[in-house]
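Structure in, sequence out. Go:
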């Protein structure tokens, strides 16, 4: 089961990485937008929400769900690794 989660995590991350990067960069620009003209700010916002592509205006939801899935699977993988490490330390302490 963990191998399946790891594989899905890897492929979803690889597939959506460019969209996460675009969202992060445009989000950063929007947060620090002190001297950006309104028309450029509107374009950046449309890129950030993927509305610039017209048909893909709901794509932001897909990207958000992918990020949520990656976060959950990442936590599961981390807990699994940490759990195995604790088990190994417990076994070593019993042997030694």
């Amino acid at each position: 089961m963990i191998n399946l989660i790891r594989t899905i995590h890897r492929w979803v991350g690889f597939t959506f990485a460019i969209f996460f990067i675009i969202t992060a960069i445009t989000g950063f620009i929007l947060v620090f937008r002190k001297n950006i003209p309104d028309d450029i700010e509107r374009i950046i916002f449309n890129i950030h929400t993927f509305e610039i592509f017209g048909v893909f205006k709901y794509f932001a939801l897909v990207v958000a769900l992918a990020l949520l899935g990656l976060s959950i699977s990442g936590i599961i993988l981390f807990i699994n690794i940490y759990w195995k490490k604790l088990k190994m330390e417990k076994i070593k302490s019993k042997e030694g």
